[in-house]
Amino acid sequence: MIGDRLNDALVIRTAVPAEAEAIARLHFRARSTYYPDGVPQTDVDWTEAWRGSIERPDGHVLCAVERGRIVGIASFRTPDGAPAQKVKLFQFHVDPDHWRAGIGTALHAACVEEWRADGRRTAVLDVHVDNRRAQAFYARQGWIPDPDNPPAEDDHHLDLCYRVTGE
User: Cα(73)–Cα(83) distance, rounded to whole angstroms?
Assistant: First the structure.
């Protein structure tokens, strides 16, 4: 990370493995808001999955911390088989108790800053079709439907892309 970004009481920094459990809890709370029938049951141990993402040498997990509590998370890396100029935002969540407080915007800006520093030119993500709040957020940040990946008829996700430009 370029360095900790400080905005009043909000600090955005690289996550550490010891925070995986807190990150998994925030991830679950955020996901619970956009599944109409509740979060699907899986055999995934999300704490271990997040620990793996944090420890992954080719990935980045940023966390937004306010008054000592993680209130936002972002996980990104180059997708398998993609050119080095491309980055995928795999996870991006803000604690629902902290929505509309500027945390997502600050966290997104930190991601873009990191992508620029790493020489990324294109970012991609997929967002759940029922997550209208996230879709609106991404649109405000400049994300557009990915022309290389139009939605399939029965897909539950929309693919978006973002052009990483200079300052």
Answer: 24
- Tallying the residues shown for the chain, one arrives at 167
Q: What is the CA radius of gyration of the chain?
A: 15
Closest CA to 28 of 15, 13, 41: 41
Residues in a beta bridge with 93 = 73
Using CB atoms within 10 Å of the CB of residue 43, give its burial: 0 to 12 exposed, 13 to 18 middle, 19+ buried: exposed
Residue 72: C-alpha distances to residues 41, 82, 128, 134, 150 (Å):
23, 27, 18, 13, 29
Please provide the distance, in angstroms rounded to a whole number, between the alpha carbons at the two ends of the chain: 17
pLDDT tens digits along 35-45: 666 666 677 78
Measured CA distances, 160 to 13, 20, 28, 90, 156 (Å): 25, 27, 22, 12, 13
pTM: 0.88
